[in-house]
Write a structure and sequence with these properties.
Elements: E1 4-9, H1 16-31, E2 39-44, H2 50-56, E3 62-66, H3 83-88, E4 93-96, H4 99-104, H5 109-121, E5 125-130, H6 134-138, H7 142-153, H8 159-162, E6 166-169, H9 183-200, H10 203-208, E7 211-214, H11 219-226, E8 233-236, H12 243-252
Parallel strand pairs: 1-2, 1-8, 2-3, 3-4, 4-5, 5-6, 6-7, 7-8
Bound molecules: phosphoenolpyruvate.
């Protein structure tokens, strides 16, 4: 059975004390819940919050993710944070290749491939984001765009490590815009992503990979998305900053 995953992405929000408060209140809710072994709750926090947040949650229920890592392993890279540093703070996942990093910070698929390799080297699970822009949806190239992102970003990932990777389909036009892909649009792409993973690796592997949907997931649209066969959960931005919304989205799965 594939893992069902609800992952929050706080982006560059909250001060450390506010983040700890949010993580603690989410933790309090889950302390009374018996999670099925294949259900994973992840919160993606700023680097500055990782240490305090890992100490504020029960790691058997809630995993902490970083939102990025360096493509380099160590050395003279001022301002960068290496995968092993993230691991040493107790995080278990890293969001890699988010469209904001691709668009604002110029991350290419080959940089993303290196970041994923660094995560795997350090026993961190990368959450690889992929997705097309509005223009690419409109001009009909969206399947090719996502396929090319996957092939190039996974260039350094072998059959062993792909099973330690989560994929998040995040159409750029749906991120933070309030426009959500319809459940049918999302399912169509998730099914396609699984097919591409089967082509790169094999069908058995593709069937085991969790593919999350991200893009304006809210309590009122989560259930219809999560009902689709190939949607294994969500990567949640804005709504993950509100405890009640994040919990309602978990309840939807
Ligand atoms: C995201 O940034 O990963 C995201 C999905 O954001 P939002 O839910 O706010 O659209």
């Amino acid at each position: 059975m594939r893992n069902k995953i609800i992952a929050g992405n706080w982006k560059m929000n909250t001060l450390v004390n506010q983040g700890v408060q949010l993580a603690s209140s989410i933790n309090e809710y889950f302390s009374n819940i018996k999670l099925a072994p294949h259900v994973k709750i992840i919160i993606g926090v700023p680097f500055t919050h990782i240490d305090a947040c890992t100490k504020s949650v029960d790691f058997t229920k809630i995993a902490i993710a970083a939102q990025n890592c360096s493509q380099y392993e160590k050395g003279a890279y001022t301002g960068e944070v290496a995968a092993d540093m993230i691991k040493s703070l107790g995080a278990q996942y890293v969001i890699v290749g988010h469209s904001e990093r691709r668009q604002i910070f110029g991350e290419t698929d080959s940089i993303i491939a290196q970041k994923i390799a660094n995560c795997h080297k350090n026993a961190l699970f990368p959450i690889l984001c992929c997705g097309e822009t509005e223009g690419e949806r409109d001009d009909g190239s969206y399947f090719d765009v996502v396929k090319n992102q996957l092939i190039a970003s996974l260039a350094l990932t072998d059959k062993f490590n792909i099973l330690r990777t989560v994929i998040a389909y995040e159409p750029v036009w749906a991120i933070g815009t309030g426009k959500t892909a319809s459940p049918e649009q999302a399912q169509e792409m998730h099914e396609y992503i699984r097919k591409v993973i089967a082509e790169i690796y094999n069908k058995d592997i593709a069937d085991q990979i969790s593919i999350l949907y991200g893009g304006s997931v809210k309590p009122d649209n989560a259930a219809e998305l999560f009902l689709k066969d190939d949607i294994d959960g969500g990567l949640i931005g804005g709504a993950s900053l509100k405890k009640e919304d994040f919990i309602k989205i978990y309840q939807a799965i």
